[in-house]
Write a structure and sequence with these properties.
This protein is mainly α. It contains 5 helices and 3 strands, in the order E-E-H-H-H-H-E-H. It has helices at 21-26, 29-33, 37-53, 61-80, 88-96, and strands at residues 2-6, 12-16, 84-85. It has a 3-stranded antiparallel sheet with strand order 2-1-3.
């Protein structure tokens, strides 16, 4: 499900809530394209380390793990930067996913 987040200056971002299929298939690239350099770097290093210690076989394991948590982390960081739900549907979706507390 996609929701919209708005900031105080009127900027609007559309984010996905739930499992990240793009992270599952493309690893750290979705974070890189979103401009989320911190998490792109963390995902890349984690995959490289898993791959190094398992001779390349385990490099896909962090991708699966991050697929379940990346969208939630990205949305939480946007909320910390001053974004807020643009409508009641977005607020409800964030509450359902446990990203924000019910008011």
């Amino acid at each position: 499900m996609k929701i919209s987040l708005r900031n105080a200056s009127g900027g609007l971002k559309t984010v996905k809530v739930g499992f990240s299929w793009t992270t599952f298939f493309f690893g750290f690239f979705p974070a890189l394209f979103r401009g989320d350099l911190k998490w792109a770097f963390i995902m890349f290093i984690t995959s490289a380390l898993f791959g190094f210690f398992t001779f390349g076989i385990g490099a896909w394991i962090p991708g699966i793990i991050f697929s379940f948590i990346y969208n939630k982390m990205y949305t939480k960081e946007l909320l910390e930067k001053g974004y807020y739900p643009a409508d009641d549907t977005a607020q409800s979706a964030l509450q359902t996913q446990g990203i924000v507390a019910a008011q």
